[in-house]
From TrEMBL, chain A:
Record domain Putative zinc-finger: where: 11-40
Keywords tagged on the record: Membrane, Transmembrane, Transmembrane helix
Superkingdom assignment: Bacteria
The species this protein was found in: Salibacterium qingdaonense
Protein name per the record: Anti-sigma-W factor RsiW
From TrEMBL, chain B:
PANTHER family assigned: RNA POLYMERASE ECF-TYPE SIGMA FACTO (PTHR43133), RNA POLYMERASE SIGMA FACTOR SIGV (PTHR43133:SF60)
Keyword Ribonucleoprotein attributed: no
Similarity remark: Belongs to the sigma-70 factor family. ECF subfamily.
Name of the protein: RNA polymerase sigma factor SigW
Keywords carried by this UniProt record: Sigma factor, Transcription, Transcription regulation
RNA polymerase sigma-70 region domain location: 24-90
Amino acid sequence: MTMSCENRYEILLDKYLDGEINQEDRLELFEHMETCEDCAARLRELKKAVMLVQSSSHISAPDGFTESVMNSLPNQKKRVTWKKWSRQHPFFVAASLFIILMVSSLFSVWNEQAGGDISVQGSRNVAIDEDAGTVTIPEGETVEGDLTVRNAKVEVEGEITGSLTVINGEKYLASAGDVAGDIEEVDQVLEWVWYHTKQIAGDVFPAGRESKD
Amino acid sequence: MDAVVKRLIKEIKKEGDQDAFAELVDLYKDKVYQIAYRMTGNGYEAQDMAQEAFLRAYANIESYDESRKFSTWLFRITTNLCIDRIRKKKPDYSLDAEIQGTDGLTGYSQLAASQNLPEDQVVTLELQEWVQQEISLLPEKYRAAVILRYIEDLSITEISDVLDLPENTVKTHIHRGREALRKRLGNA
């Protein structure tokens, strides 16, 4: 066997083992091996080596491998859990979003009104003094129904048949003055919010309000 | 399987979903561990390399191109890590070394016995240990090609993708690895 012959059949053997040999070369190779014991032995040995590697048992990852990998991951579990939770409880997400929007809109309304102009709801039978910041129900006057005053000091010398609500101000009740209903003062934002909530509740459940009255 | 993998990867990419990633690890852990074990030749390094491969896959999931096979990408990370480890230092452990805290237990005894092979193909445990040792003696480039070809049963084209080498280079590596193994195993 010459060197060139060896190279030639080595290449053919590799092609044969790679499954890439054509019919012609295959016939040539096997014809050659009829007479060349070296090449025949070589093919046997290669096949045996490949068989041994192929049949070496397939091993599995050790127990607890996945847990071990997961424990080494950067910790993002909380974020994921929250996302999953929010996907499973859309109602809570919607409800809390609603509350946030409600509160923030109430705050903005409060901020607009705080320190703003004097406003009076309920009656025209009152004297408003913008410079002094007072609202006076003059003696002898009668306010029919409820009266709500914002951003002012209220002096009651006359009569109110309903309730008086003072938002962001003070009330002064003269001895002659009389308020038939409740007197309510609202100064803090939270109180104001509570007041509004009660209003809304009263609107939503009028029966409850009547019985309270 | 492919559809499942695609869905899992989408979830991991979208929100770093770790539950989806755990499923992915479960699907591929045996193959990745097998490559790492055959490359490094011992259980400790195999566990280390396989785990590191998954952690890198998670960290770099954005760079995975979904038009290509996920296993190819994952195997590339694994083989690169193993080849780097082999080149940087000679392995800490040898299969012949006793495992700490065990009585005379060597790395060989961690090899499971062949299952479901026809009788004439059942290879004894000693023979398997010897085969693994001979694989471990191959230069790492040939070793990777031979493992992917004959143990993971990948095509030349897939191996060329995994190792990022031209197909002809892959073939040459397989031929040389095969030839080296023939000399050591062929006349058993």
